[in-house]
Amino acid sequence: MDRYGSLLSVQIICLGMELIKDTVYRALWDVLTEMGETLTGIYERNDTPLRTREELPEYKGWYESDGIPLPESAVTEICENGVHYLVDVENGQKTGFFLDQKYNRAAVARIAGDKRVLDCFTYAGSFGLNAALGGAEHVTCVDISQSAIEMAKANAARNGLDGKMDFLCEDVFTLLTKLVERKGRDYDFIILDPPAFTFLPPYKFVFPSFSAYMLYILCLLRLFL
Description:
By secondary structure, the protein is α/β, with parallel strands linked by helices. Helices cover about 35% and strands about 20% of the residues. It has 2 domains: about 1-70, RNA methyltransferase domain (HRMD) like (Transcription Regulator spoIIAA); about 100-225, Vaccinia Virus protein VP39 (Rossmann fold). α5 (about 170-180) packs parallel to α6. It starts with a strand and ends with a helix.
C-alpha cells in the first residue's frame, strides 16, 4: 500500500493477503485518521497478471466499505524532494508512482548541476525534474509513450521547469543507437531507468531481460568512451 496525498493505493498479489484485506484496510484507515491524517479513499490496483497465479481476478477500482468515501477523481497531487507531481492512481504505473526511487531522485539532483542531462524512460519526468531542480544546464526527457511525455510536460510546467527541459516521444534504444552512430556528445549525464521487459523492439524475438539491459549499457559506454 502506498499513500499519495489523501489517497491510499494498494495492490494485492497473493491469496493470503486477499483473505485479510478488509481487516488490514480498516486498521490502516482507523490508525491514520486517529493520528489526524486526512484520507479520502482507498483505490485497489489489482489489475496485475500476477494475481492469476493464485487464481485471483484482475480488477481495479475504489474499495467500498462503511465510513470510507468514494472520491470522484483518482488524480491527486504529491510533493517529493521539493518537486510537485500529479499522480493518477487509476492509470499510473504500479500503484500510481515509483515511490521507491525517492532517494535516487534526490541523488540525481545533487550531481546534475551544470550538466546536460538525458533522462531515458522518463515516464512522469521524475528523474529529469529532479535534475532540472538541481541546477542542470538542460534536461531532455525521453519515453516511447506519448501519454507519459504529456504527463512529464505537465509536471515540468507545474514546477516552473519547462523552460530548461525538452521532451521526446521516441524509443530509447533507437535514440541511443542514433547518438552512437553519429558519435554525438550531446549529454554528459544520462539516466537509464528501464522498465521490466523481455521484448525489445525492433527485434522480432524475445530477449532475456539481462541481455536487453546489457544492450542499453553497451550503448551508453560507447557514447562516453
